[in-house]
Amino acid sequence: MNWLVLDDSVPGAVIGIDGRGIVDRAPDDASDKREEIVSEWQDPGNRGSWAAGDWQPQPEIVAYARLGVWEAALVRVGGHAQLGVRHDAGRPVWHGLSKSPDDMNRGLVGATLLAPGRLAEVTALTRRDDFVGVQVQGAERIQQLVVPRVVEHPPGEEIPPAMIRGSVTTLAAQSPAAPLDLPEELTAELVRRLRRKPADAVRIAVGLRIAETWRLPDGFELPLVYDVAPGKTQGYVTDETTGAPLSALHACRNHHLTGALDWCTHCLNPTCRLCSEAVRPCRLCQGTVCGDCVATPDGRCPACAALTKVGMFQRGRYGVSASGAVWHGAATNVQVTVRQERNYWSLERWDRYDRVTFPLDPHTVQTLRGWLA
Ligand SMILES: [Zn+2]
Ligand SMILES: [Zn+2]
Ligand SMILES: [Zn+2]
Ligand SMILES: [Zn+2]
């Protein structure tokens, strides 16, 4: 027996389903054998949409046949396949072909994260409510949007589909109740037909993409987009100049985000490596000075540019002998003192952060003599 009888109530005719489609033929015991009528399985187009009701996720209708008032559809979510039959647009009756709770869950995950009709095999997943975002120091987060970020064809083993489904949606997978009650041969034939068209399954890993707005102390609203890698919880922003992953960020005066700020000792306003006026060491005192504060084309800071010789009677205050010499320069937040005793030159620098004294090398002394002349 390799077919399913739908109707044998009319004398001289039996309607049923076999591997070819819906068939109308004379009964086996009929005396006069007439030609059988076969309405073959076809590409459904937009027919058979009744067969998608009561499924979660929406199934794929792979084949459809109609003969008179009888309709049949081969329906599946991956390896979970059923034959639906209806009479005169009534309620469908279902017969199971193959069961796959895993594919039902893969289909529900795929429909939720990718598109209807796609099965997702997930290797790693970060839940939307299970991550740690980045911090912008001294700023306030005023907006946050979190969406899944799908990476296709990742390496790694698949996580059990039921577990993933529970993390991705509160919906449960379901199909209309369908006993596995068809003759074995017919089931095998219909399953073979279904397998000719491969299911649309894709291996993915799911992380997060986070879009935020931060309000900086000066009122500027800074947009920020970053990712949490699949299966990880900590989000990182990639440093634009070093490529380093950063979870603690600082905003410079130009609202660039960076892992570490460079402070100008003169204006006390930070820059970063992306700033065109980025802080650099002063050519003479090595103190940090930004491009806005630098005083001379050769790269001296305002204090060094203001160095003037200290008169003979003031010299004692700076701790040099009568045979020595002293130059002093002062600017907002920074003071520089250069001392000379015979051939020994030293520089003392004093700013808001630090006070340092160091000897000047002969090359620097030579350049300095030119500046002081
Ligand atoms: Zn049945
Ligand atoms: Zn500055
Ligand atoms: Zn900057
Ligand atoms: Zn300087």
Description of the structure:
It is a single chain. With 373 residues, the chain is mostly beta strands. It has 5 helices and 26 strands. It folds into 2 domains: 4-118 and 159-199, no CATH class; 262-372, no CATH class. The chain has helices at 101-113, 161-168, 184-195, 302-305, 362-372, and strands spanning 4-7, 14-18, 21-25, 37-40, 60-67, 70-77, 80-87, 93-98, 119-125, 135-136, 140-152, 201-215, 221-228, 237-238, 245-246, 248-251, 257-258, 262-263, 270-271, 280-281, 288-289, 308-309, 325-331, 334-341, 344-351, 355-359. A 5-stranded antiparallel sheet has the order 22-23-24-25-26. A 4-stranded antiparallel sheet has the order 1-2-3-4. Strands 5-6-7-8 form a 4-stranded antiparallel sheet. The chain is rod-shaped and about 140 Å long. The mean pLDDT is 94. It binds zinc ion (4 copies).
- Dominant shape: rod-shaped
Q: State the distance separating the first and last CA atoms.
A: 114 Å
User: Describe the biggest sheet?
Assistant: 5 strands, antiparallel
Distinct small molecules: zinc ion
